[in-house]
Amino acid sequence: MERLIDLSCEEAKEHFLTGSSYFKQDMPDYISFEPILTDVAAVLNGRSYRGFKSENPSRYAGVNYSLTANKDGKLAWRPLELIHPAVYVSLVNLICVPENWEHIRGRLSESEGGAVDCCSAPVRSCNNQKDAAEQVRSWWHTVEQRSLAYSLEFSHVLHTDVMDCYGSLYTHSIPWAIHGLEEAKARKGDLSLLGNDIDLHIQEGRYGQTNGIVQGSVLMDFVAEIVLGYVDRQICSELGQPTDFRILRYRDDYRIFANSDDQAESILKIVSDQLRSVGMSLGVTKTRLCRNVVEGSIKPDKLAGIGLQDLGDANAATIQKQLLRLHAFGQRFPNSGALRRLLSDFTDELAKDSARPDDLEVQVAIATDIGFVSPSVFPAVATILSHLISRASTRENKHYLWDKVRKKVSRVPYNGYLEIWLQRVTHPESVGITYESDERICKIVNGEAPDLWESGWISSNDLKKALDVSKIKVGSVLDSEEVVQPEEIELFRQNAWIS
Hints:
Blueprint: E1 2-3, H1 9-16, H2 19-22, H3 34-44, E2 65-70, E3 77-82, H4 85-95, H5 98-110, E4 116-118, E5 123-124, H6 131-149, E6 156-161, H7 165-168, H8 173-179, H9 181-186, H10 194-204, H11 218-239, E7 246-250, E8 253-258, H12 261-276, E9 288-290, H13 293-297, H14 300-311, H15 319-332, H16 337-351, H17 360-373, H18 378-389, H19 395-409, H20 416-426, H21 440-445, H22 461-466, H23 491-494
Parallel strand pairs: 4-7
Antiparallel strand pairs: 1-5, 2-3, 6-8, 6-9, 7-8
């Protein structure tokens, strides 16, 4: 794998313009944003969107498309935004100008070798694995393994992370990070300054807001790393070289290694102060101090998940008992990475068993409730449900079970991403259910043409044609197999221990 900052500007541009970089979450294989990105890039031809507008996009609401994902089955939600493709491609063009790319690389390299060891530099895969999978493997080797090794030197590890990192990031801190606070303040509003132009791109897709950046793309992960790298440098200037402590950071997650409570907490205060300067704050409920580094280096859900895996099928001989065991784990660790891993492993085992069970409706009910309580795992739950319901004796029985699932899932608010996957498992011709949804991406899959992005500010007809939403439908849901295939949710296993 290669770090993005080690790529040339041309390689970085090619990487950012892939569909999987534009939106990182698993999507059914008949949905892809890459055709739109390719056509928009051809129209812009390396230029800014500003040469194609009649008004400032910041005057319009809905320039970016908000695809909501529920976090707890209730009222907690995560806004996954699809950046307006014209703004996105324009921002990629800007960042990947050779001198701009070299300047950013230089800034990020300044953050290396100090008190904070960043383990989350975005990477590109060098083989056939998806880039997110490579990112997870990088995390495993650089964070968890190094944390365990630090038990030889330190007695304490303090875990903390940023509360709503992307949503709270102050966009004006982007030019501070790229140019330094003094120059950025002196040239405030000067769009010839790279950081100011990046800042404005982000604002103009978000109704002029200066609080928060978009979640869901590799490009915004990269921008977040630029700002967090700046915070790292500020922390380093306060703490000096690490002699009797270490700090590991993965994105917005910090691990502080020390040899006393007081030392760990004094370092935590400095980290908190510097994050606050860019609009961020630490999550109090997720801050914990452990006086055994080995124990504290492994997340509790992962330890529990390892224990559950080691029990084997002999301790839960039937599918229903295995599902109940997973359900109990999900109640204890909802939406956890370990739950995703366990569910992913379970789908592999389920695929080996094609028997028609007598308790099929009960199995479906338990699996559905796992997804109801932990909506972030729904792609894996949808895979399980597709296996189970495919075993129903008749099409009428299949429709009966899917109707029960749909009615229960409909009670989950803010569930646009979930509905995309529910459409995937109910709409194939072999299932025979026409899935109706208010989610606009579902409507596009059904052949409609709702707007995803507000484009009233665009004056170019060529650019408007490039934004034709029908292009995201690269296949037919009707042609999809009844049972979801493992490769459709492959990121679940690789992402399992990172959440």
